[in-house]
Amino acid sequence: MKLRSWLVAVVLLVSAALLAAVPASASPSLWHLTDLAAQRVRIADQVAAAKYGTPSPIDDPVREQQIYDTVAAQAPRLGLDPADAVRFFRAQVEASKVVQRGLHARWAAHPSEIPADRPDLSELRPVIDRLNTGLLTELAATLPARAARSCSQRQLLAARVADVVHRFDALHARALGEAISATCLPR
What we know:
The N and C termini lie far apart (43 Å). This protein is mostly helical. Helix 2 packs across helix 7, helix 3 (61-74) runs antiparallel to helix 4 (82-109) and helix 4 packs antiparallel against helix 8 (170-179). The relative contact order is 0.21. 71% of the residues lie in helices and 0% in strands.
C-alpha cells in the first residue's frame, strides 16, 4: 500500500511538472478542460442513480438534442466550429452513458450496492448545464492546444492526472477516455 501511495505521489509530481513546464507563450493547457470532463463523468453516477429502476431510459434523444442544439448555437460566438463543438459534446454524452450502463449492470448484479439516495433529474440538469457551459468555454480557450500536434500527448497526460485526482475506477477511467476522445481537432 505504501508503494502504491508513493507511486501515485510520483506520478502526480511528474505530471504537474510537465503540465507546468508549458511556456506562457504556448497554447493553454488541457488540464481544466479535462478536469471539467471528469466532473461531468462523475455526475453520471447521480444520473444513473436517478434513472435506475425507473422508466427513464439511459438514452434520452430529446435531452441530447437539446444539448447539441445549444452547443451549436453558442459555438460561433466563442469562435468555435459548431460541428466540432457538437462532436466534443457527443463524446461527453456517450461517456455519461458508459457510466450509467456500467452502474446499472453492477447494481443489477449486486442489488446491495444500489444507492439509497436517488436524486431527481431536474436537480441534476442545472449542474450538468453549468458543466457544459464551462466545457464549451474551455473548448474555446484551448483551441490552439487542441489544434497543436502535441494535443494527443497533452490530452493523455491530463487524463491520467485526472484519473488519479478523481480516483477513478476502471469504469470511470474508460468513460473519461470516451469524454476526451474528441478533444483534439482532426488533422
